[in-house]
Design brief:
Elements lengths: L17 H17 L27 E5 L5 E3 L2 E3 L4 H9 L6 E6 L5 H13 L4 E6 L3
Parallel strand pairs: 1-4, 4-5
Antiparallel strand pairs: 1-2, 2-3
Length: 135
């Protein structure tokens, strides 16, 4: 469609915007319709409840502390390194959740912490979670 202004006679060149807007709207509708099909999510393992099993009483967490002076504490009870394997085996013998939290002083070397992890794994601990320690 041409537009005339003022006193000038003749046809002025102007771009017809209607077909471009129509194409733009069609493309917008196509992309909006295709977008929900491309959503990605994370696979999550949702815990399933068993109707036959009675809920267990919550047990306290087991925290093993290694202080910078080398002393060990199992849930705030002093423990000698010689008694650690037997004490851990006794604690985790009847527990269904075999998770232990290990809290070590930041000044310690990694090999000392790794040795405790190794001892606890041999005593029957399935998972060892590391906690930051500030003593």
């Amino acid at each position: 469609m041409a537009i005339q202004t003022g006193t000038q006679r003749g046809v002025q060149a102007a771009i017809n915007m209607t077909p471009m807007i129509d194409v733009l709207l069609v493309l917008l509708i196509i992309f909006m319709a295709a977008a929900p099909g491309n959503t990605l999510g994370l696979a999550a393992a949702i815990p399933q409840t068993s109707p036959a099993a009675a809920p267990e009483a919550p047990k306290s967490t087991i925290i093993l502390e290694l202080r910078k002076d080398g002393s060990l504490r199992l849930n705030t009870q002093r423990l000698s390194p010689e008694n650690l394997p037997q004490r851990l085996a006794d604690v985790f013998q009847l527990r269904s959740d075999r998770t232990m939290f290990l809290k070590a002083a930041p000044e310690l070397e990694y090999r000392e912490v790794a040795a405790l992890i190794d001892v606890s794994r041999h005593a029957g601990v399935d998972r060892v979670a590391l906690l930051p320690g500030h003593f």
